[in-house]
Amino acid sequence: MKIAVAKETRDGEARVALVPELVGKLTGLGYDVVVEPGAGRHALLSDEEYAEAGATLDDAAFDGADVVVSVQPLAAEQIRRLARGTTTVSFLPTTTEQQTVVELRDAGVSAHAVELIPRISRAQSMDALSSQALVSGYRSAIVAAGMLRRFLPLNMTAAGTVQPADVVVLGAGVAGLQAIATTKRLGAVVRAYDVRAAAAEEIRSMGAKAIELDLETLEGAGGYAREMTEDRAARQRELLTPYVAAADALITTAAVPGRTAPMLVTREMVEQMKPGSVVVDLASESGGNVEGSVAGEVVRIGNAQVWGGRNVPSQMPGPASKLYSQNVVNLVTLMTAKAEDGTASFAPDYDDEIVAGSCVTRDGAIVHEPTREAIEGPAEPEPAQDVDGMTTENLATDEQPDLPYDQEADQ
Q1: Cα torsion 257, 263, 264, 270: sign
Q2: Which pLDDT band holds residue 43 (cuts at 50, 70, 90)?
Q3: How far is CA 254 from the centre of its chain?
């Protein structure tokens, strides 16, 4: 069995899908690990480290590979180098990468998207969305602290007292909680808000103050929030305005994969912030939580500098790669079968909800139904079943056979 580790080709991507310290986990399962030279360079990992860990360096790493792992989706020219039946594991945002999905389908490649892994307890060790959000949340706090031209902690000196900075965090998922924890450790006074009721206790557990608004909570599936109505969104923005205006730093982290990020903060709200204030919008790439934020840029709105996040985990490629690598290794391990004689084979079990749920293409078809429908259109209706040699659609009403009535199926 052969696993190839791809060198990332997309601009700004500094992560790598497998770090040297985890090569042994895969070779221990019976895999030959082959790495494209320079794959770890931007994450400060040398080819020599991979070789010492037991990997092979080869420009033709894809040749004969059973599995190819990467962070970003493979480019079209990379996909065309793969043999039919090869499996890829990567991030694969299907709403924006439809042409890539078509290339994978036409190449007969089985593609697994790590962001589609079901959010169940058994899959926590494979949850790349959470592992990378952890990095993003930490990074957002450091960016805010670096851009602020004042101390975050309280300082009492003989020359006088320096008051702590006020930080507001909107969204208390993995990224938001890490932003809260980091700014709190740096000494700021932190307030946070999330539309989910359960988040208030998590916010308090980090030492921050939960912002409580007189609004219904919006618990959704998979740990995400439900989409809110425009009336509720407008009322929420109105109630959050004084908290935003009083903040020295505002960090927004609310995003749901595959959807446009909710607009939590208007330009008018930002314009009420104090001179020297900072806004960090982690959701800029998916539309932004802050009106006017631009992914990958710092723009000025009123008195505030607004930092738009772009591929934020890649800005800390070392820890991000290590965490992502562990997610990948755990997923590959799940898809590896061991025989009674101790030999192993790459044999994904598509009856497993993790394997099936993460699969986008397989055997020359798109198997992720929302993606298939978006690319190929609605499925053709099944033809009517034959009844005694005639199709039911051609039977007159009074000629319909007296078929059994299945109440459960009818419901």
Answers
A1: positive
A2: very high
A3: 12
Spell out the residues 6+ positions from residue 8 whose beta carbon is closer than 8 angstroms to its own. Answer: 14, 15, 16, 39, 42, 70, 71, 72
Q: Rounded distance, CA 337 to CA 355, Å?
A: 13
Reduced to 3 states (helix: H, G, I; strand: E, B; else coil), residue 314 is helix
Cα distances from 131 to residues 40, 45, 93, 212, 324, in angstroms, run: 19, 20, 17, 28, 7
- How many Cα atoms are found within 13 Å in the side-chain-facing hemisphere of 229? 6
Write the Ramachandran bin of 171: left for phi over 0, alpha for psi from -120 to 50, otherwise beta. Answer: left
| % of the chain at pLDDT higher than 70 | 90
Instruction: Say which DSSP state 119 is in.
Output: -
Residue 184 tokens, joined:
């709190």
- Span 345-355, average pLDDT: 95
Q: Which residues are catalytic?
A: 119, 124, 127, 130, 224
Cross-strand pairs, 17: none
Write down the pTM of the prediction: 0.88
Single out the residue of 36, 39, 80, 89 nearest to residue 58, CA to CA: 36
Task: Report the alpha-carbon distance of residue 340 to residue 300 in Å, rounded.
Answer: 64
What is the pLDDT confidence band of residue 353, given thresholds at 50, 70 and 90? very high
* Three-class DSSP category at 362: strand
Report CA-CA distances (Å) from 320 to 14, 118, 131, 171.
10, 21, 8, 21
- The runs of H, that is alpha helices, within 8-127 are 23-27, 47-52, 76-79, 98-106
**What does the buried/exposed string (b/e) look like for 255-275 if buried means 16 or more CB atoms within 10 Å of the residue's CB?**
bbeeeebbbbbbeebbebbee
Q: pLDDT band at 217, cuts 50/70/90?
A: confident
51 token code pair: 């070789």
Radius of gyration of the chain (CA): 25
Residue matched to tokens 């009074």: 398
Please give the pLDDT value at position 350. 95
